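Re: weekly structure request thread

Next one in the queue (226 aa):
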Amino acid sequence: MLRDAGYHIGQTYKVWSPGSVRDAPCGARKYEYESAGSRFNQFSQNATKLIDLGSSLMDVKRALYDEVTQNFDSFIEAQPRDTPFCYWFGPTNVHRKWTRGSGKTLWGLDPDDLKGKLPDFLPDVHAVREDMVDYLGEVMAFDTALGILLDRLAVLGELENTILVVSGDHGIPGFTHAKTNLYDFGTHVTLAIRWPGKGNPGRVVTDFVNLMDLAPTFLEVGGGRR
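Done, posted below.
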């Protein structure tokens, strides 16, 4: 619908739409911008492999972040002049499997710093704490990539003209009470919205929200039919 309203649309990594994931008639591969690859999706796995082959940690991270930049730039380069855009960035690096020990190896996170800080329903033992910091390492990779995209928008002069929505879609995979379970740990996910000139920056909303509300909001803002 945004495409029909005149938007340049595209996506990198995972997006879900009617039909099969990769070849859905409403998107997927048709609007895919992954010219630099998709290694970022398995950040810890690919970073660990490259380090094992002799690359430095700094070079490995730079290579994976460069992929994020290049994929986004290919989308921007394809944008017709004076056309608004809608871009979906959907990395899956926080999905299993992440590499065991990568939280400490890649990010310097000490599992035992989480001692006494895990949810009550998780065993507070080293193996579980290690699994958690490995997950948090993937979160840090995503956070850095998000910062890269914000910087690119600023360079393009579009940061203050772009609505940004960042969300999760489920809890952590592989933990009790988390993904595929209707406990808070499985359904309470990140939702942050940046809308320049609208609302009160820094406002925290504690109301129940549903991500299905995003589509009609985007269509109303973008001039498409709801």
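Residues 126-156 form the longest helix (31 residues). Residues 8-166 form one domain.
Next request, please.
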